[in-house]
Amino acid sequence: MYEPIKSLLWEILTTHLTTAESEWLEKQGVAHPLELMTAFVAAPRFLSKRFVQPSPEQAAELDNLIEGFSVEGWSFVRLSRVWLLSCLDASNKEAYCRHIETLFDTAEMNELVALYSALPLLAYPEQWLFRATDAVRSNMGVVYEAIALGNPYPYHHFSELAWNQLVLKGIFNDKPLHLIYGLEERSNEKLVLTLSDFAHERWAAGRWVAPQVWRLTSKFLNETLLEDMKHLFQSDVEYDQQAAALACYHSNYEPALQLLASYPHLEKIVNNHHITWTNLEFSDLNTYVSKP
Amino acid sequence: MCQNHKELEQNPSHFEESEEVVAHTDLSWESHRDLIRGMRFFDPHIHMVSRTTDDYEAMRDAGIVALIEPAFWVGQPRTGLSTFKDYFSSLVGWERFRSSQFGIKHYCTIGLNSREANNEPLAEQVMEILPLYLYKEGVVGVGEIGFDDQTAAEEKYYRLQLELAKKAKLPVQIHTPHRDKKRGTERSMAIALEHGIDPSWVIVDHNNEETVKSVLDQGFWAAFTIYPFTKMSNERMVKIVEQYGPERIMVNSAADWGISDPLAIPKTAVLMKLNGISDEAIRLVTYQNAIDAFAKSGQIDVSDFENGLTIDQSQKFNGNTILRGGQEPGAKKTNTLIIK
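^ inputs. structure came back:
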């Protein structure tokens, strides 16, 4: 996996970099580790501020090599940094890990973003687990996003507890949840119960909850959650009603299906797929205001 | 402005000695701020790690669009390398991010400050990690470095850092000493020249009436710190600009953990305006000159802030940049009693 991904990233880079930029980068990729690390830091001094637009074929190939990994919308500096990391010699585990740790320890914000973006590509993936959970704890939005969104590392390596924190923090901060790789697959009963409590707190404060949140509850609907569904159906916010309808529709919980049946117009639009979860994938919510 | 001069002296901060008698004045900022409405300001020396979010909001409201945070002495002496590392990292990390949340572009200079250069075993270690920071994005100089007590250790690390600046092609931001300032300033400049550094790459900070002429005559940039009670007042600053003109002169606040004013630049601009200094001269000393001096680093792109910093595109992912759910940093505060 290592070599093909490295050459694909290089291909994406070279389609857009100037000759001078490529030459500089290529030289750094084969340099001694300390020089390579300096290049990682100094990249913005040598590369222009532009953004990556991989072709559909390149994007598909990338996803084929590492499912869920995307470079869409990255800056060239970020992609170049990730490429440089993929060039770092990993044969000596101790030295390799020490170099990566040093980069983490001294990183500024954009370097952190690159480092976390690169986690699915790094050797010895289990070594970076603490760092990865630290990114979830970060209050720098972009750092959280680098680990949580469009990054398959947490899906593969996070414990249930760490995973739930990642999802909860994303919800708490109004992040676009649908960009979390493996979101539905790793949903679990504990998470869903916490989400229900969270919703109650929000409602008590006169605030609301992103409708997408209920997507995670479908498989785990029970008596408690059913009360939440009732609350949503009675909401005067259309998105809430749709979320409840979808959550019930996708559940295999008989009482939920019965509840849905009592709202025929909603039942109809979800049955006909006129509304799917995709319709509720928002990227720019502010759920802290009282109502949308 | 100066109700409690005595108390301040018990708590000396960035500038330790106060010889100045500050006159009371009836001018209020609120009633004059409209004079500079629409002007943009660049504060090339301010220590935001010591300031609050209220300061950020007030600065933005007053027209400050970008700032430079020099690495300095944080008040409490550091005992190990890790605390230096964490401090440098916060200058390029957390503080930079925090600033962006208020729509202000944040740059920094990195260096071993003169006071702590005297702890030689630690200084040795700090020198080893400095290069890792100097090449970072948005690091616009080596600073603030220079003399405090003017000891041999201070001179040693000042010289070593001048060499680092040369190698990294970065401007140098010199802190001139509080005590024996005139001699310290001359010595700082002489050493920089001795190391073959072009004076147009050196910003000599914390000038006063006694040092400015020599600094300008030798081709250096002369920065002035408007800091309440101590070194420079903005009334005296007006006179300096009247006397020397705006060329190679810049104003900063050096606001830090002491009694200082993050609005020092806009307030000085008001005073200049009231005293008939031209808008162009005001623009040069409160904005453009600092940009010209530090842009030699190649790290300042004015398009990032000249029309007001919205959100840096490189830090944006699918339109979502909110720091913590629901907060809208930079949104205008209201005077309402109700807190939602």
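Residues 1-12, 15-24, 311-327 of chain B have pLDDT under 50 and may be disordered. The first strand of chain B starts at residue 41 and ends at 43.
thumbs up if we can close this ticket
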